[in-house]
Amino acid sequence: MNLKLHTLPKLVKRTLVVFLLTLAFGYFSGLDLLKHTTDFKAEGVEKNILGTEADEYAEELYFKMSEPELHTIIHSHVITLGVVFVFLSFMIFISSYPPALKSFLMIEPMISLVTTFGGLWLLWNGIFWVKYLIMISGILMHLSFLLIILLLLKDLIIKKL
Q1: Which residues, in sequence order, are CB contacts of 83 under 8 Å at separation 6+?
Q2: Which three-class secondary structure state does DSSP give residue 96?
Q3: Domain spans of the chain?
Q4: Following CA atoms 109, 90, 73, 67 in sequence, which dihedral angle do they give, to the nearest 10 degrees?
Q5: How far is 82 from 118, CA to CA, in rounded Å?
Q6: Mind listing the pLDDT tens digit for each residue in 71-107?
Q7: Which one, 13, 14, 35, 36, has the greatest CB density within 10 A?
Q8: Angle of helix 42-50 relative to helix 130-157, nearest 10 degrees?
Q9: Could you tell me how far CA 119 lies from the centroid of its own chain?
Q10: pLDDT tens digits, residue range 102-126?
C-alpha cells in the first residue's frame, strides 16, 4: 500500500492536524474531569463507583452508582472511544512508523479500553482488587492516546517526502 500520511495533499494534512488537536482537546478535557472526580487514585475510582455511604469519616458523601448509570457510562465510553481508536488506528496504519510500533498502537488502546471499563463493571459487582487493574489499563490507554497523537502530528507536520 503506497498511501502514507506524509504524502497526502496539504489541505488533507492540515485538516487532519486540526482534527487531531480538536480530538486531543476533547480527550484531555475528559481526563481533567477524571482528575477532579478520582484524583487519579484507585480509591477515587472505588469511591465514584461504590460510594462512601459506609465510611462515617468520609468528607463527602457519595452514593453507589446505579446499575443503569454504570451501564450508560460503560456503553457511551466504549463505543465512542472505540470509534476514536479505530480511526486513529487507520491513521497509524498509513503512517511512516515501524510495523511493530504500529501494531502495538493499533491494538493496545482497545484492549485497555475494554479492560478499564470492564473493570468498572467488575468493581461495581464487588471485585475490589480490580481497581488497580483499572488504574493500570487506564494509564496505558491514556499514554497510548497521547503517543498516537504526537506521532501522527509529527508525521503530518514534520515528515518530508
Answers
A1: none
A2: coil
A3: 5-157
A4: -80
A5: 13
A6: 999 999 999 999 999 999 999 999 999 999 999 999 9
A7: 13
A8: 110
A9: 14
A10: 999 999 999 999 999 999 999 999 9
